[in-house]
Amino acid sequence: MARIGPRVVALFIDWGLAMLVSFLFFNADAVANLAIFAAMTLVFVSVTGHTVGHRVMGMQVQRLDGTAVKPVDGVVRTLLVCLVIPALLSDADQRGLQDRVRQTILVRTR
Predict the structure, then answer these.
(1) Whose CB has fewer CB within 10 Å in the chain, the N or C terminal residue?
(2) How far are the Cα atoms of 2, 3, 15, 37, 64 from residue 93, in angstroms, in the given order?
(3) Residue 21: pLDDT band by 50, 70, 90 thresholds?
(4) Measured torsion, CA atoms of residues 44, 71, 100, 87, in degrees rounded to the nearest 10
C-alpha cells in the first residue's frame, strides 16, 4: 500500500500540472485550477486507476478485492479529494475517507 510520502509527491505533481494548464489557458485562475485538477483526477482514475502523479510515483487506485476501479469510484473519490478534509481523515492503513467510502485503496505498483 502506498505511504504518505509518495502520495504527497503525486499530489504535488498533479496539482502542478493543473496549475500549468490554468496558467497557460486561464490566467492562473484558482477556480480553473481546481476544476482542471478535478477533471484530470476524475478522468485518469476512472479510466486507468491512476493520475499522472500516481503513475510517476508507481501507485494505482484499486478496489479492495483487487479489481479495477469503476467510473463511479473515480467520481466519488475525486469529489472527496477536492474537498481536502476527507483526504486528511485516514485510518490505520492510511486510507483516507475517499478510499473508505468506495472500498478502494492506493497501492504501490513497483
Answers:
(1) C
(2) 9, 9, 24, 25, 12
(3) very high
(4) 40
Q: What separation, in Å, do the N-terminal and C-terminal C-alpha atoms of the chain show? A: 11
CA dist 88 → 8, 20, 32 (Å): 12, 25, 23
Comparing 46 with 88, which gets the higher pLDDT? 46
Per-residue confidence at 4, pLDDT binned at 50, 70, 90? Answer: confident
Q: In the predicted model, what is the mean pLDDT of residues 63-76?
A: 93
Strands 104-108 and 59-63: antiparallel
Is the Cβ–Cβ distance between 105 and 1 less than 8 Å?
yes
Spacing of C-alpha 49 from chain mean position: 9
Residue identified by cell 484558482 is 30
What residues does 43 pair with on adjacent strands? none
Residue that the C-alpha cell 483526504 belongs to: 87
Give φ, ψ of 6 to 5 degrees. -60, -30
